[in-house]
Design brief:
Length: 708
């Protein structure tokens, strides 16, 4: 049944009475056949306060038994046109009486307004009430009817039906609203409950992360006091949370004063990233940490959220590393210094041995002493090679090994290295071959001295480890230099010597590596030659490797690159070897060197004066002119550098006297220091007669630099 239908006026009336005359009477009264309607309009207005319809059109249906009445009511309900009221007779034999009928009608439709029609002799009001219960939907109309009363009842009860239907509909609406609102409230409640549970779970998760973080986390208020700290922070400060929260770490001395500027930055809204700070732990003492900090707002207030990572161990390790590195640097420095000193200390007597034996060989000495003289000289030369290797290795170690780039005669350089050993190979009955490819460029640009060193080292080893058979050196051009590029040259040194076991070949080019101790004892050597060769070859843009079979022989092969050099200059005018008229000043503090150099110069026919130190040399130059000065560098009182500078500051012609440095340690650094001090050239100790002669000849005709 639509509630809309119930909210409209309903004037349908069912009359249930077994007496047809009653039906007729009621129709007459209610359908206007008795003219009383106009009078009732006023009454209706008076009763209900509403504008009554001009004439109410009642619809009246009739039923003559209770059962029939119920059927009509059910039918009207099915059509959604229920009766608003019913007039029900009390006595309706043979069927249900009025009370039974009413009780059935109300079961079907409780809103039905009922008028019980009864005579005085029928049920009393109490009887009816007892049977039907107390209801405000029922009135009693005593027979015989009063017309006005019938009309009033019809109007009043149809009106009451409308009002109570509207009230019921309103009540249902209210029930619906309440149900809806209740459902909404329940849903909202569930949502809140869920949110609450989620929040609680998030809080637990956050707490777990916060507490189990290995990094210290703190929350501080705007004044710097701790609001919360995690477990890692308790560990770091060595205090329980209760003793930390509410306190200012700087004030309590837990965190160093270096935290104050961090706090200051945070107050100004500047975030901090990995700032180092110190903090205090009661057991471990002063510690170091890195701090990250962010300003965060919680509940409308500003806080500092800090993450503190302990780096004490890392810091200590770093400091130890720095100390170790400083120690290592100092050790390396000491080693370099030691090597420089050792070089100087060994080279000076070596200079004596080689210089004097060289001088003696040129003297007339008994023939039986000559082999001994040669032995002294060879021993000196071996010693010098060892010394050179050790120094080269030290330079390699400290990254100071440098190559020069100058034009040189390639074939001549290789031939020199070959001949150094081939001349004495005849004594061992060794057959020696030198094969130089005709395509080899005549002149190239590079470091001839270092190339000679590598080739000589391989030849020296081949010669040392070969007792019979042959030694061969081959050189060929691998790639001719492309325009503006570099030549790639390959050199092979083959021998038929003792060979190298397979398992030793891998480490052959490592420093101090020798095949075995017995070989070392038998053949001598430092185990540095190949390591130095490999480094030099690599610096020259090449590589070195070996193929060998024990008892059959070895082939060492290396490649190197060399720059393109112009055509060789036409040979200069023959070098005059007449240096006899020169006046030479030798500034040297070492007695042996004084003797060797003076004797060599005298042998060349020069006039020699010796000065024991730099100051004496300056005095000597002031007193008389010299053609050339040979200047030792390390001398007591005034060293060679200062003496050279003083001489360059003198007046002419003394100021422009050529000064040649004589030193045991010819490094690029020393060479440039000498040139800076105003010297013209640097000669290496021990000096040989031929080199000395060449240098004198070269510089006797040259002008010295005018300024120091
Ligand atoms: P060393 O000064 O000891 O000769 P090297 O570095 O030049 O040092 O050589 C290292 C080792 O390699 C030698 O001691 C030797 O055992 C082995 N070796 C080098 N060249 C040859 C060769 N041609 N034949 C056999 N063994 C060689």
């Amino acid at each position: 049944m639509s509630s809309q239908g119930l909210l409209e006026p309903n004037h349908r009336i069912l009359v249930i009475d077994d007496n047809t005359a009653i039906h007729d009477d009621l129709r007459k009264i209610l359908l206007g056949e008795v003219k009383t309607a106009e009078n009732l309009t006023d009454d209706e207005e008076l009763l209900f306060g509403a504008q009554a319809a001009a004439v109410t059109q009642f619809e009246i249906d009739s039923a003559y038994q209770g059962q029939e009445g119920l059927a009509k009511l059910e039918e009207s309900l099915a059509q959604a046109r229920p009766y608003a009221m019913a007039f029900v007779d009390i006595r309706m034999p043979p069927g249900w009486d009025g009370v039974e009928t009413i009780s059935r009608l109300w079961k079907a439709y409780p809103a039905l307004q009922v008028v019980v029609c009864t005579a005085y002799s029928d049920y009393s009001w109490n009887d009816i009430q007892r049977k039907l219960g107390l209801s405000d939907n029922m009135l009693i109309l005593k027979k015989p009817f009063d017309n006005i009363e019938v009309i009033q009842l019809a109007h009043a009860l149809t009106r009451k039906w409308l009002v109570s239907s509207q009230a019921n509909a309103r009540l249902e609406d209210l029930d619906l609203m309440v149900a809806q609102r209740t459902a909404e409230l329940q849903a909202a409640n569930q949502r809140i409950q869920k949110q609450f549970e989620e929040k609680a779970a998030a809080e637990v998760a956050f707490r777990t992360v916060f507490e189990s973080s290995p990094i210290g986390i703190t929350l501080q208020d705007a004044s710097g006091r701790y609001v919360d700290v995690n477990h890692a922070m308790e560990e770091m400060l060595g205090l329980p949370k209760a003793g930390i929260v509410g306190r200012d770490p700087v004030q309590y001395g837990w965190i160093g004063a270096d935290y104050s500027p961090i706090q200051e930055a945070l107050v100004h809204g500047i975030d901090i990233d990995s700032r180092e700070l110190t903090y205090w732990n009661p057991q471990r003492g002063k510690q170091t940490a890195l701090l990250w900090a962010r300003r965060v707002a919680i509940g409308g207030r500003d806080y500092s959220l800090c993450f503190i990572l302990d780096i004490t161990e890392r810091k200590q390790m770093e400091e130890e590393l720095v100390r170790a590195r400083l120690g290592a640097d100092a050790a390396a420095q000491a080693k370099s210094q030691f090597l420089a000193n050792m070089s100087h200390e060994i080279r000076t007597p070596l200079n004596g041995i080689l210089g004097l034996s060289c001088l003696l060989e040129e003297e007339t000495i008994p023939d039986e002493l000559r082999p001994m003289m040669a032995l002294i000289r060879t021993s000196g030369e071996v010693l010098r090679r060892v010394l050179d290797d050790v120094l080269d290795f030290s330079k390699m170690d400290s990254g100071k090994l440098e190559l020069i780039d100058e034009p040189f005669d390639l074939a001549e350089t290789l031939r020199w290295s070959f001949q150094l050993f081939s001349d004495s190979a005849a004594d061992k009955n060794l057959h020696c071959n030198l094969l130089l490819d005709s395509n080899l460029p005549a002149r190239v640009s590079g470091d001839a001295v270092r190339l000679r060193q590598v080739a000589s080292n391989l030849m020296s080893n081949a010669f040392k480890f070969t007792q019979r058979g042959m030694i061969q050196m081959e050189a060929r051009l691998v790639e001719p230099a492309p325009l503006g590029g570099r030549h790639v040259i390959r050199v092979l040194v083959r021998d038929t010597g003792i060979g190298i076991p397979e398992d030793r070949m891998g480490r052959l080019f490592e420093s101090f590596s020798q095949v075995d101790a017995a070989t070392n004892r038998r053949y001598g050597g430092t185990g540095l030659g190949l390591a130095i060769s490999r480094r030099l070859v690599e610096m020259m843009g090449g590589a070195i490797h070996v193929e060998s079979r024990v008892g059959v022989g070895s082939t060492f092969e290396f490649t190197f690159t060399a720059g393109i050099a112009g055509e060789s200059q036409p040979p200069a005018e023959p070098i005059s070897i007449d240096v006899g008229d020169l006046r030479i000043l030798v500034a040297e503090d070492n007695r042996i060197n004084q003797l060797v150099t003076s004797r060599m110069l005298q042998k060349l026919g020069c006039h020699v004066d010796v000065a024991d130190n730099g100051a004496a040399a300056v005095d000597a130059v002031r007193n008389q002119p010299y053609d050339i000065i040979l200047m030792d560098l390390l001398m007591p009182e005034v060293d060679g550098f200062d003496a050279a500078r003083s001489i360059r500051r003198m007046s002419q012609p003394a100021a422009s006297t050529p000064i040649l440095a004589l030193t045991a340690s010819v490094s690029d650094e020393v060479r440039s220091q000498c040139l800076e001090a105003g010297m013209n050239d640097v000669l290496s100790k021990p000096i040989e007669l031929a080199s000395l002669r060449l240098a004198l000849n070269c510089w006797r005709r040259c002008e010295a630099p005018r300024t120091a």
